[in-house]
Design goal:
alpha/beta, Aldehyde Oxidoreductase, domain 3, TIM Barrel, 2 domains, six-stranded parallel β-sheet, four-stranded antiparallel β-sheet, about 45% helix, about 20% strand
């Protein structure tokens, strides 16, 4: 899984902000013990089984602190890793390795946790015709990293933010007065190339969204029987996304009703962190 130069450019500002959060003047413990320009090495070790994601972010944290930093690894993002695997050996200035350790591990643990949970849900779904999607339920200032981790785990990204996709939700409909009015306004004020998705909560809303010409219809928090009826009503005239209370346990039943997309906030907001350790630090 490549991350591209564009992602790296956008990532730096967030990584620097995270470093500034932790080192707002200096690392007083490290700087009191170690002299500047002390070459050192340390080992990055996996403490669990799962999917690796965010190794390039881990690396970038140290690069921003230390021009001499380098990393040796046989692993890459997307690889299956096991408990006690030696993921990487890192080399650089002792001060930089110590000062960047927590921030680097925080990114790697969060991203690998999301990739691991996503991968387990994709495997449980076990249906290549259906895309498992994330949502905008991400940690503030972590969306770039969390959505990347979803892709590493085999999932797909829904819209990145409010500027790159049209999704008419319940409060848009409430404010506009109806689905029809909301869709008409969107068509008047946005480019014809953009697809329009409408969130629906019952069969009447499904019919109205279909009549209004929605490209994608989201079935939000519907029970199984209602969703089956909605799929019949839509009859392939629009893509169908189901959302709301999507758990790993429900994926099997959801895969059989004829939807094209399943979205879940759980893969970002409820993923447990994957545990790593930075050990065996020594001067060289």
């Amino acid at each position: 899984m490549t991350h591209g130069s564009g992602m790296k450019i956008n990532a730096d500002k967030f990584i620097l902000s995270a470093l500034q959060e932790d080192i707002y003047t200096e690392d007083i413990t490290t700087n009191s013990i170690f002299e500047e320009n002390t070459p050192a090495s340390a080992e990055l070790i996996s403490k669990g089984n799962g999917i690796l994601a965010g190794l390039w972010v881990f690396e970038r944290v140290f690069e921003l602190l230390d021009d001499t930093f380098r990393i040796e690894t046989k692993f890459k993002d997307g690889d299956i890793i096991k408990k006690n695997d030696l993921i990487a050996v890192i080399y650089g200035d002792m001060r930089a390795l110590l000062s960047g350790e927590r921030t680097a591990l925080n990114y790697l643990q969060r991203m690998s946790g999301i990739a691991t949970l996503t991968n387990s849900m994709v495997k449980e779904l076990n249906n290549p015709k259906i895309k498992l999607l994330d949502t905008r339920k991400t940690t503030p200032n972590m969306r770039l990293f969390e959505k990347y981790a979803v892709k590493v785990g085999g999932g797909h990204n829904h819209r990145y933010g409010l500027s790159d996709g049209i999704l008419i939700k319940d409060n848009h409909i409430s404010g506009a007065g109806s689905i029809k009015k909301a869709v008409e306004k969107v068509r008047e004020n946005t480019s014809f190339v953009r697809k329009i998705e409408v969130e629906t909560e019952n069969l009447e809303m499904v019919k109205e969204a279909l009549s209004a010409g929605a490209d994608i219809i989201m079935l939000d928090n519907m029970d199984l029987e209602t969703m089956k009826k909605a799929v019949q009503i839509i009859d392939k005239k629009a893509l169908i996304e189901c959302s709301g209370n999507v758990t790993k346990e429900r994926l099997k039943e959801l895969s059989d009703i004829g939807v094209d997309l399943i979205s879940t906030g759980a893969i970002t907001h409820s993923a447990p962190s994957f545990d790593f350790s930075l050990k065996n630090l020594k001067s060289i």
